[in-house]
Amino acid sequence: MGDLYALDFDGVICDSCGESSLSAVKAAKVRWPGLFDSVDSAMEDWIVDQMYIVRPVVETGYENLLLVRLLLELRIPPIRKSSVAEGLTVEGILESWSKIKPLIMEAWDENRDALVDLFGKVRDEWIEKDLATWIGANRFYPGVPDALKFASSRVYIVTTKQSRFADALLRELAGVTIPPERIYGLGTGPKVEVLKQLQKKPENQGLTLHFVEDRLATLKNVIKEPELDGWNLYLGDWGYNTQKERAEAASISRIHLLELSDFSQKLK
Question: Please, what are the domains in the chain?
Fold first, then answer.
């Protein structure tokens, strides 16, 4: 009958870590000017480099803002630090982000929706002023644009990125047009709920269902839902995950570890 692929975007289709980190630095300067005014280009470069290490913990884009500030606080004198950053290391962030995040949201008196809006606004302004540079800060994983262009399977994008940014990158960087009704972005609900919607659509009946993700936690959430037992689950080993997570995934019978070359072949 054919195949349906639900694909995560960041870390599966697109390596957006450079762009999301730079956008987060821009947004952090707006949100916390007192802290970031004195950040020079060398410090900015260091922060962006470290963001590649901690990127596996990010579930939704606004968290990049929190990470950028936390990384800065690792480097500034204790007198300017919040107590949450005391004694913290980059490795510590990677290990304990789910515990750290609520603490810093409270300590810094931050609001999730306000950060989401700010992050989106900063990206919109960057795109408006200089689309070429914004596009250039992203890259598609090798072979993926062609695989999407020539896919014989039905493809949906299921992402925590705002849909307009995923759509712009697909069109501008990959030359791929995916109908807007097949892009489920931030605000369309948790991924498990989107997968339930997809499998109920009349046009998807009889298709073999596949979900490709780079976050192990998301795949584990799918496994908890008996209603989603019909999905084949894949962890992309090229995405934003750690060796420890890949080893754990390999021990879970429902999850297939997927290599990039195999992914491109499957879509074609």
Answer: 3-15+140-267 (3.40.50.1000), 17-133 (no CATH)
